[in-house]
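Researcher: Here's the sequence for the chain we discussed earlier.
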Amino acid sequence: MERLATIRADDHHRRPQSPPPITTSAAKPPVTTSTAKVENEKHEDAKDLQSYIPCMTTTELEKQFQSAYTHAKFKEFHDEFFGRPNCSLKERKVGDVWSEYEVKEDMTFGEGEETWTRYVPFTVEFNGETNEANCNCRLFEFKGMVCRHQLMVFHERRVQRVLEKYVLRRWRKNLKRTHTKIRINYDNSSSTIEARRHDNMCNLFNEVVDLAEDSQEKYDKVMGRLQELKRELIESLVMCGSNMVFDTRNDSFSLQDAVLPSK
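Model: Thanks. This is the structure I predict for it:
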């Protein structure tokens, strides 16, 4: 009996063990800057559509930007909107169409304990026919956000809602973003530099589009210069012996050339 128990014990040790389960899950690609940016924008867009930042006043102007802009941009608008108490306004010239205003802003300079304040004058030109306001601080031209000096003049001239040109399309909460040329980089090589160049150019092009889309004259100027730049780049590629092929037959562009998808 004791011998039989020993044999069974030996048989148990010699019995082949079941192999461990084989996992076939593929290695997940690393999260790149581009993919993280896309996911973050999707999350922020969903949050913007499902919630809102309350208005602090009852003005139609604030409501206009609240309903249009993403949370981040509406906060930037609030910085300018509520920065108006630091400003004072004075008429310089008032005409039938164009008027000129001086807006002085109480600005703080320096850092830490070594700070000082002084009034800095800005000039705002206002078109009474179109309700356009141009400020020499150039905040709108450089960053696409109406400045507090323009807002002071809008308030003075009883402008309830600003022109659509002052509410840029790329920061609207209902804008469906597309990322058709996001480069996914797995080896952290030179393609990262190409992706950065691509992003920088697209950002600049988008700003130019927003500034030019409301005027046929601006549109023609942008298209003309882009066609000229395209020809220069193609010529430089030819001189370098590149094998890239470009279609240069349609260097003239009209609105009829753009085919819009049917809804």
